[in-house]
Amino acid sequence: MKIYFSIFLFLSCVSFSSYGANGDYGPVKGDREFTLSGSGTSNNDFDRGTLGLSASYGSYLTDNWLMSIRQGLNFADLANDNIWNGSTRLVFDYHWNLGKWRPLVGLQAGAIYGDGVQDTGVAGPEVGVKYYAKPDTFIYFIEEYRFFFEDTEDVNDNFDDGAFVHNIGVGFNF
C-alpha cells in the first residue's frame, strides 16, 4: 500500500509543480513511440545471472491515448540449466500533458510463455510517469500489476495473486 501512496504523492507533486509548463514536449495524435529498458542480476562470482529486456512500439490515438504492443524477454543462467521466458502484451495508456512530465495510467493484457513459467494469459493495471528531457526523448518509470489466468473464469479468482513488475527505461517519439 505504501508504494501506491508514494506514487500518488509523486504524481500529485509533479502535477502541481509542472502545470502550465512548456507544452511543446511530448507527442500528439498520430505520433509513434518506441521504448527500451533492461535489467540484470549476477551472483558475486559473476558466473550465474539473469538478463531482461523490454521494448514497446505504439501509436497515439489522440494527444492523450497511447496504444502499444510491449514485448519482454528474460534469460536466466542457472547452475544446472539456462531458461528463457517472454511476455507479449497489448497496452492502452492515458497520459496527462503536464509539459515535460507525463503521468499515465493504463491497462495491459496478453500472454507469458517459455521455460520455467506456465504458458498463460496475463492482464492488469499500470501507473507511471514519463519525463521529457528533449521534445521527443524521455525517460520513464512504469509499475505494472500482472495477474495470471488460463481462461476468463480464472480472472476474478487470480486477481489477488498477481505480481508487480517495475520498468525504468528510455523512449522516443517520432
In short:
By secondary structure, the chain is mostly beta strands. Helix content is 13%, strand content 59%.
Q: Provide the β-strand percentage band.
A: over 45%
What about the largest sheet? 8 strands, antiparallel, barrel
Percent in helix: 10-25%
Q: What is the annotated CATH architecture?
A: Beta Barrel
Summed up, the helix count is 2
Shape category: globular
* DSSP, total strands: 8
Under CATH, the topology can be stated as Porin
Q: Give me the side-by-side strand order of the main sheet.
A: 1-2-3-4-5-6-7-8
Order of helices and strands: HEEEEEEEHE
The low-pLDDT segments are 14-22
Structure, described:
The chain has helices spanning 2-18, 154-158, and strands at residues 32-42, 49-60, 65-77, 82-95, 101-114, 120-134, 137-149, 163-173. It has 174 residues and is mainly beta. It has an eight-stranded antiparallel β-barrel with strand order 1-2-3-4-5-6-7-8. It has a single domain, classed as Porin.
